[in-house]
Backbone:
């Protein structure tokens, strides 16, 4: 039951992120989470903005020349947060979540207050099936910014992945109440009601 519902939610997330928060998906197919639910393009104004829908779902590994160029920048300047975030974004766009997470962690070591990057890191962990670790990142972001839309949405996804559907629904209910009528959340209420009704992904 939980996996069926999770599959429905994950499928919904792809459309939600493409149409909504200016990023790309944060959970792909069950039980992986599409990256877009976390990406920060358009809302953060940082390098994490490389997560637009148009750049999501890229097939194959990231361009090695692009990776090498950014790695050189990061290597030459150990304080270059931007290069590290861009590396994380590029690798995340190509579903290289483990490598992306490493660069996001380096960026956060230099700029720990960057909630958008922290949410991107959480999305990588969620895609890797590490829901408890992802939850820790989302919760840390929410401690600093309780209204962080993507952190709240992704926290719900992490709870679903952990089999905690009731808690996920509570988080999403809070999100919907905080942002009533938000077009980026269009359809989420319906999906929440489906979970409550136990209808899974079949409607």
Residues:
């Amino acid at each position: 039951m939980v996996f069926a519902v999770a599959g429905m939610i994950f499928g919904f997330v792809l459309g939600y992120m493409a149409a909504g928060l200016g990023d790309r998906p944060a959970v792909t197919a069950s039980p992986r989470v599409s990256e877009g639910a976390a990406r920060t393009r358009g809302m953060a104004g940082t390098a994490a903005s490389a997560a637009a829908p148009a750049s999501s779902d890229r097939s194959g590994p990231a361009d090695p020349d692009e990776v090498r160029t950014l790695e050189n920048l990061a290597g030459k300047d150990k304080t270059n947060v931007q290069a590290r975030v861009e590396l994380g974004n590029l690798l995340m766009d190509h579903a290289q979540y483990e490598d992306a997470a490493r660069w996001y962690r380096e960026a956060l070591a230099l700029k720990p207050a960057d909630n958008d990057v922290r949410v991107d890191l959480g999305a990588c962990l969620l895609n890797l099936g590490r829901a408890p670790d992802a939850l820790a990142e989302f919760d840390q972001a929410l401690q600093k910014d309780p209204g962080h839309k993507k952190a709240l949405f992704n926290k719900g996804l992490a709870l679903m992945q952990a089999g905690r559907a009731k808690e996920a629904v509570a988080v999403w209910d809070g999100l919907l109440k905080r942002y009533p009528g938000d077009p980026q959340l269009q359809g989420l209420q319906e999906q929440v009601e489906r979970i409550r009704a136990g209808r899974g992904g079949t409607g």
Q: What stands out?
A: The chain has a mean pLDDT of 77. The chain is about 60% helix and 0% strand.
